[in-house]
Write a structure and sequence with these properties.
The structure is a single chain. Strand 1, helix 1 and strand 2 form a beta-alpha-beta unit. The chain is of the alpha/beta class and 286 residues long. The protein has a single domain, classed as Spore Coat Polysaccharide Biosynthesis Protein SpsA, Chain A. It has a 7-stranded mixed β-sheet. A 3-stranded mixed β-sheet has the order 5-10-9. Helix content is 36%, strand content 16%. The protein contains 12 helices and 10 strands. It starts with a strand and ends with a helix. Helix 1 runs parallel beside helix 2 and helix 11 crosses helix 12.
Length: 286
């Protein structure tokens, strides 16, 4: 089996669908695919759209409803306080893959829901990890991520060492399950340093430092612009504000992505996004 995990809430159902469909369209082993979908607040209509991946391509789907779990509540409360407020708790679900997936699964590929897979995923999934806990691509703006304001405010990481993006990770779950993320932080860092952490990406990089296998950046080409199409990337990662489902952005393979999501879901998702924004504006105006 090719075990793949995604984490998302109902606001990201269509990008998650596009990511899953891209995997299915570009693999030779669709019936070996098993998607583990860690989700919150997923509506019946949106779940049905995701379930079509199984009927259309023969992949297996394992829905894991985090609303019925204490993972995003009690477990996150155990973590030291972090100042940043940008992301919702669902972002932490990656830290608990070892707990949430079947104990018999030894390897899983984690994909963010803003990725577009363009090459057979088995090319990545079947690599020799050479004893590493995680295989990933370096973060392009890693120096700022590592050191912060004026490249001098943080001491938890060394700018001389690799720092990896957590949006595409091939994970050895045996080593992952053995990691106590809370202890890795509180036993080695002062609270003032932990408060500056960038959520789970910093946590994973710190906890598994020296235990990464570096991948070619074509396996996680981040913030891709049209000129990057010439690199023929294996996986595109639309991790900046420019997203392929936004009408006026310039990103690589934008037209292809719209048809990947399908026209029907693309425009449905656009309408839903505008409705959410309108409701938010109305609440702010009251």
């Amino acid at each position: 089996m090719i075990e793949i995990a995604l984490t998302f809430d109902d606001n990201y159902w269509a990008p998650a669908y596009a990511t899953m469909r891209s995997v299915c369209l570009t693999t030779h082993r669709t019936r070996d695919l098993r998607f583990h979908l860690l989700h919150t607040g997923l509506s019946g209509e949106h779940r049905a759209a995701l379930e079509s991946i199984a009927s259309d391509y023969g992949a297996q789907l394992n829905f894991i409803d985090l609303d019925g779990s204490d993972i995003l509540g009690k477990r996150i409360e155990q973590f030291p306080r972090i100042k940043m407020r940008r992301f919702r708790p669902i972002i932490y679900a990656r830290l608990f893959l070892g707990d949430l997936l079947n104990a018999g699964i030894e390897r899983v590929l984690y994909l963010d829901s803003d990725t577009f897979v363009r090459s057979p995923i088995e090319m990545l999934y079947d690599i020799d990890m050479k004893g590493a806990a995680i295989a990933a691509v370096r973060q392009p703006d890693r120096l700022h991520c590592i050191a912060g304001t004026d490249l001098r405010t943080r001491n938890a990481f060394s700018m001389a060492e690799p720092y990896f993006n957590s949006g595409v990770m091939l994970i050895d779950l045996t080593q992952y399950r053995d990691m106590d993320f809370v202890a890795a932080l509180v036993d080695n860092l002062p609270q003032s340093e932990i408060e500056m952490f960038y959520y789970d990406q910093d946590i994973i990089n710190f906890a598994f430092r020296d235990r990464f296998l570096e991948l070619d950046n074509r396996w996680n080409l981040q913030n891709p612009e049209p000129a990057h199409e010439a690199f023929d990337p294996h996986i595109l990662h639309y991790s900046a504000l420019a997203r392929p489902w936004k009408l006026w952005t310039r990103v690589a393979f934008k037209r292809t992505y719209r048809h990947l999501m399908t026209n029907a879901y693309f425009y449905q998702y656009r309408r839903e996004t505008w409705m959410r924004r309108a409701k938010s504006w109305l609440r702010l105006g009251n």
